[in-house]
Amino acid sequence: MKTILDVEPDSREASALAAVLANEFHLVHCAENHQAADHVSSEKPAVVLVDLSLPLESGLRLISSISGGNSALPVIAMSRNVDPQTVVSAIRHGASDFLSKPLNLEDVRAAIHRAIVPPSPGPFIGSSAAILRVTDTLRKYARHEYPVLILGESGTGKELAARAIHALSPRLAMPFAPRNCAAFPEELIESELFGSSRGAFTGAIERPGAFELADGGTLFLDEIGEACAAIQAKLLRVLETGELWRLGDRHMRKADVRLVSATSRNLKEAADRGLFRHDLLYRIDTLVLEIPPLRDRREDVPELAAFFARNAAGSRKRFSAFALERMVDEQWPGNIRQLKNVVHRAIVLSGEREEIGEEFVVVY
Questions:
Q1: What string of pLDDT tens digits covers the 364 residues of the chain?
Q2: Longest CA span, the chain
Q3: Does residue 97 sit in helix, strand or coil?
Q4: Is 251 helix (H, G, I), strand (E, B) or coil?
Q5: 157 close to 308: Cβ distance less than 8 angstroms
Q6: Distance between CA atoms of 117 and 115, rounded to whole angstroms?
Q7: How far apart are CA 329 and CA 144, in angstroms?
Q8: Separation between Cα atoms, residue 65 and residue 85, nearest integer Å
Q9: Alpha carbon distance 260, 362 (integer Å)
Q10: Which residues pair with 119 in a beta bridge?
């Protein structure tokens, strides 16, 4: 029977939790933070529960020390204070999950099972420390309802990350609606996001926008930094109230969406220059996920190249060691998207050869 270490001051809550989990787990209660390290060493728990109603900074330090000393030991934070800052702080210090108090005991059981069961493979190809950190953070963010802002250069896989957040979230069965704010002219982006009523403009028909289409699910706004000032103001209102009006309509509508945004711009700098609203930035960056450029995870290049070659040409194509070495040495300003194009080009140029030599690795 696996052991669960429960670090919290209230022995009555610990007893109630122990009774509920008795058929599956052995719960060990620890009332003081400073005793927790000894219990981790002696009890060898499978999961640690940490109550942040103990002094917050002390609890965060405990989470950090446990997860830092043993990254394979999951830590679940608990607190009566569920404001975004507390949740984000717990996750950044290494918590794998967060539960609000008073506890729903079935939620506790589910969280423990999630922590114990090995996670499914992440959305990214590669096993570098950099991309594994991103995948771990992504999984943590997915379980919560707070907005996520994904940062990264063009071609790093921001939409892939957004889709993974949706797929790992409680909203999985509901729609995922992606929209690129830079893909529509200013006069059309409002109707694309909020919908339109018949006659609102020349050729307008009655149609829902992305917010309504994503109702109950996830709305992904790529390149949100390109949204004009008028759209930024409307986005802020919808995010604050959940209320929207279709273009040209007099009827207020409701939309329950989790917003995931992405940008390759520095939004803080843009806000300081008056190009992006500070209040909207504070709304969308509750949780921030930064995806590294390919040049910062070069050890993943061989695995990525093999993956793209396998998908394009089956198992009959492989890269020579010199070809892989050359690809690892490239800077890849276009990131994953550029690497994928180079792989496809090499497959075509190498003809019937099973091994793709370095002479066919052409990088523009």
A1: 899 999 998 888 889 889 989 989 999 999 888 888 889 999 999 999 999 876 778 889 999 888 876 667 899 999 887 777 788 888 888 888 888 888 888 888 888 988 887 666 778 999 898 999 999 999 999 989 999 999 999 999 999 999 999 999 999 999 999 999 999 888 789 888 998 777 656 666 678 889 999 999 999 999 999 999 999 999 999 999 999 888 777 788 999 999 999 999 999 999 999 999 999 999 999 999 999 999 999 999 999 999 999 888 776 788 999 999 999 999 999 999 999 999 999 999 999 898 999 999 999 8
A2: 73
A3: strand
A4: coil
A5: no
A6: 6
A7: 39
A8: 20
A9: 35
A10: none
Tell the residue number behind the tokens 């910062």, with chain if given.
Answer: 296
CA–CA dist 108, 113 (Å, integer): 9
Q: Which two tokens stand for residue 342?
A: 């180079």
Token pair for 24: 């599956």
Q: How many residues does the chain have?
A: 364
Distance CA 326, CA 357 (A): 10
Strand ranges (E), 250-340: 252-254, 258-263, 287-290, 318-319
| Amino acid letter for position 78 | M
Amino acid at 208: P
List the structure tokens of 96.
């794998």
What are the structure tokens assigned to 206, written together?
């009655």
What is the token pair recorded at 245? 């009006």
Output the six-digit token pair for 327.
Answer: 């690809």
